[in-house]
């Protein structure tokens, strides 16, 4: 099924679907049961997180990247399904490792169904992602599978580094950026590149689109770190200060260590060893006194500018870049 037709000069502005429109189209196709009924506990757990609608940013970006070069085809939806399923697989397992009680404002899978079932459910979701990839045209399958598999391994590497950093007193800024690049950015970047592959893009455009996604993903994570500490929990859908309670070495934490006075550094070290109800509030007081909130906004803008530079360098008419540009701006201004 075609979503858009090849444009002429008069209809160019009407060809490209907005993120909201493509998100609705994706959701209509994706909102079905992806698993059998029996055993019910396993497959209900597998389906559970999929029904708690997330932002669907990665799969829709795949569709948007395809549409930059050619009309959207059914292979793009199969790949977009696989991307979203893989993302949810990582969330199920990450929540177990983080012992997180909430995801998207709802009980996490392991909280609702138990850890053992949640582990199996995550595995089933991952297998189903590959079943979707197996449906695409053979001429794309090799390239898509190679990129998907290398990305999946990098995401796992990033999660491992993230867990290791929780146990380390010192983590360098460069090491943290590398971890975020693996855990968060590469899936965003690969989603765009896979869409570009399906749209017939050349290697130069694929590379620029990947770098756009990679830098946007880092900026996105900076915003996520910021919102976890300073965001409105009613909008963000998570318990505030989750990263603080888990002793995660976020962008905010690393900057606080650089900017803090000797007394504040002692306070930060003390807070790492605590797990009481005042820990979050006291950590935020140190962050604010070091102007971490303003610094995070500046750092986010730096990576956002790098992302937009790669988007600008793509050999594609400006009208076809506009939807991604607008989405990037929205992601940077979000409060959820």
TrEMBL record:
Instruction: Kindly name one Pfam family recorded for this protein.
Output: polyprenyl_synt
List, in alphabetical order, the Gene Ontology terms for molecular function in this entry. Answer: metal ion binding; prenyltransferase activity
The record's annotation in InterPro entries points to: Isoprenoid_synthase_dom_sf, Polyprenyl_synt, Polyprenyl_synt_CS
Q: Name any cofactors this protein relies on.
A: Mg(2+)
The GO annotation for biological process reads: isoprenoid biosynthetic process
Give UniProt keywords alphabetically. Answer: Magnesium, Metal-binding, Transferase
Q: Extract the coiled-coil ranges from the record.
A: none
Superkingdom of origin organism: Bacteria
Record family assignment: Belongs to the FPP/GGPP synthase family.
> Protein name, please?
Polyprenyl synthetase family protein
To which species is this protein native? Answer: Hanamia caeni
């Amino acid at each position: 099924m075609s979503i858009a037709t090849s444009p002429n000069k008069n209809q160019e502005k009407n060809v490209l679907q907005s993120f909201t429109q493509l998100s609705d189209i994706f959701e209509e196709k994706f909102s079905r049961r992806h698993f059998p009924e029996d055993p019910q506990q396993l497959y209900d757990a597998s389906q559970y997180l999929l029904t708690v609608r997330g932002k669907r940013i990665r799969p829709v970006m795949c569709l948007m990247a395809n549409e930059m070069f050619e009309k959207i085809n059914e292979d793009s939806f199969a790949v977009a399904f696989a991307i979203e399923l893989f993302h949810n697989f990582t969330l199920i397992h990450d929540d177990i490792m983080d012992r997180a009680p909430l995801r998207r404002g709802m009980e996490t899978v392991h909280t609702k169904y138990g850890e053992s079932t949640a582990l199996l459910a995550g595995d089933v979701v991952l297998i189903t992602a590959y079943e979707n990839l197996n449906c695409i045209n053979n001429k794309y399958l090799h390239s898509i599978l190679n990129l998907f598999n290398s990305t999946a391994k990098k995401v796992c590497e990033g999660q491992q580094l993230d867990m290791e950093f929780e146990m380390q007193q010192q983590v360098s800024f460069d090491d943290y950026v590398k971890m975020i690049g693996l855990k968060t950015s590469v899936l965003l970047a690969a989603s765009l590149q896979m869409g570009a592959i399906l749209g017939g893009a050349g290697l130069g455009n694929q590379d620029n689109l990947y770098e756009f996604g990679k830098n946007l993903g880092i900026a996105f994570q900076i915003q996520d770190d910021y919102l976890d500490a300073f965001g409105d929990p009613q909008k963000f859908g998570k318990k505030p200060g989750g990263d603080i309670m888990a002793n995660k070495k976020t962008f905010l934490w690393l900057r606080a260590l650089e900017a803090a006075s000797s007394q504040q550094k002692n306070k930060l070290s003390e807070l790492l060893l605590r797990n009481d109800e005042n820990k979050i509030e006291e950590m935020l007081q140190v962050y604010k006194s070091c102007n971490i909130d303003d610094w995070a906004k500046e750092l986010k803008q730096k990576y956002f500018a790098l992302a937009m530079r790669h988007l600008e360098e793509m050999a594609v008419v400006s009208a076809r870049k506009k939807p991604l540009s607008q989405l990037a701006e929205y992601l940077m201004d979000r409060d959820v």
